[in-house]
Amino acid sequence: MCLEVFGDRWSLLIVRDLMVRGYRTFKEFQESGEGIASNILSDRLQKLEQSGILTREREDADGRRINYWLTQKGIDLAPILLDLLIWGARHEQGDASCSLILKMEKNREEILAEAERRWRERDSTPLIPRFDSEVARNLGRGPAKPHSRG
Do residues 36 and 10 lie in contact, with contact meaning Cβ atoms separated by under 8 Å? Predict the structure, then answer.
C-alpha cells in the first residue's frame, strides 16, 4: 500500500509541502517551483485524499477556495519525512536549506513536536522558510553574474 501511495515523485513532495512549507492551496503547490503539471497535481491530491493522507475543505470566507490539510494518518508521516529530509541534506551539495535541515536533526524531537502542534492548531507557518523560486534555484551557486548584453 505504501508504494502505491508514495511510489511517484509528486505525492511525497505534496506531503512535504503541506507539513514543512505550510502550503494549503492548489495554487501554492503549483507555484512551488517543482514544475508539476496541473493535471498531475490534481490527480495526486485526489489519490492522497482517497488514501486518507489529506483532506480538503472549502474556505469559509471564499467558498471557491479549497484548502488541503493533513489528516492524522498524514501527520504520522512526520518522522519519516524528517528522516528523508535529513538524509537528503547529508548527501546534497551547496544548498543553504541543507544546513538548516541538518540543524533540525540535532533538535529532532522538538521539530516533530512543533510539526504536530502546527498540524493540531492548523498553523500554516512554514517549518522551513519559503524562498523566492529564483533565489531557491541559485542557492549554493555563488554570487549572481550580471547578464551580458551583446
Answer: yes
Residue type, 131: F
From the list 102, 127, 105, the residue with the least C-alpha distance to 114 is 127
Cell of 78: 512526520
Among candidate residues 65, 85, 64, 98, the one with its CA nearest the CA of residue 15: 85
**Residue with C-alpha cell 523566492?**
132
Strand boundaries in the chain, DSSP class E: 54-58, 66-70
pLDDT tens digits, one per residue of 127-141:
876 544 444 444 343
Whether the pTM exceeds 0.70: the reply is: yes
Complete domains list, the chain, with CATH:
1-73 (1.10.10.10), 77-123 (no CATH)
Q: Tell me if 77 sits within 8 A of 15, measured CB to CB.
A: yes
Q: What is the pLDDT of residues 36-89, one digit of tens each?
A: 899 999 999 999 999 999 999 998 888 788 999 999 999 999 999 888 888 887
